[in-house]
Amino acid sequence: MIYPDTIKRMVNGTIKHVAKEAGVSTATVTRVLDGYKHVSEGAKIRVELALVKTGYNLQRRYKANGNHRKRANNVGFLLLQEDRDLLRLPVFSQLLLALDQVLAEEKMHLVISHVSEGEPLPATVNSERMDAMLLFGRLTGVESPQWDLFNPILLFESVAMSRIRFLGWADCITSDCVMGGRLAANYLLDRGHQRLGYLNPWPMHGPLKLAGESFQDVVRQSGAEMVTLSPGESHKEELDTHDLLNPYRSWLVVKRMVEGLLALPSGDRPSGLYVANDEVTTLVYRSLAEHGVEAGRDIDIISRDNEEPFLATLSPRPASVDLNCEEIARQVVNRILYRLRYPMSPRGLRVLVPPKLAAGEIEWPSERN
Hints:
Blueprint: H1 4-7, H2 15-22, H3 26-33, H4 41-54, H5 58-65, E1 74-80, H6 90-105, E2 109-115, E3 132-137, E4 152-155, E5 171-175, H7 177-190, E6 195-199, H8 206-221, E7 225-227, H9 247-263, E8 272-275, H10 278-290, E9 300-304, H11 308-311, E10 319-322, H12 325-341, E11 350-353, E12 356-358, H13 365-368
Helix pairs in contact: 2-3, 2-4, 6-12, 7-8, 9-10
């Protein structure tokens, strides 16, 4: 993968340099630069890579030819076929605020829009009005413009989008779910737990599934015991990931999972629990309390997302895996600026941003001694 700092160490090449590097004629290079359609895909990819490698000055060419693209200073955030209420979740608010702040440093603006299945794309989805388009949600069933014209970036990679990156038309920038699961496992193991569990009401949700699998791998590799917690076959209708925002259904599933955990013999219960996100953690605390079990005293908990409005209601406050929205936003803006500078550079870059551990207030016995 070629990164911007590699380009800075290269001189500005000429069309002849590009042609030589790509193994094509100068005429083919010119056709690619001018957007000529009848060029083989293989030749086009070789030319695009050669443009990056030789440091060819695209801005100078486009300015000289009068066909360079003027910056619109707008970046779109398009929510695809997901409930608008997702934007009210604290983790999304954190991300959007971070994006807005970093874009403001570059005198750019964030434009938020939404499209449901079968609806036409909003008027804001216009490549002449946007320098880049940040996408979240499900692309299937949505009108398909030429996304490659929008400098598209996939955010918070979901199951529906996980295979899109291989098509090479978009970059993907997201929190590293695998690292987050490892972080949670090591946190609980370092506190002396030898029997751990992962409580996730939505086992088919892509990022949460990845986090749980990596958590489980670390636990088993350490020699500790992993306790499987399942919502139960009879409650499959409650497991649709589109019900993430349905408090009643979430409560039913979490309550059932906690009851299953407490039904285990006391010697078989996990003493440390990793919970899918902070909102679910509030339901876990409530369900445990209904059965006379105190979170933080009878069972240690680490949560995910570090969402202050939820964590502030919990006592003692659990530790939480912070998705690092500020760094995600900075990586997104850096990538946008790079693509604006080198519009012909290859797409398909996948950036995994390391999460952070946000400390809690739970003192486990091993820490008190």
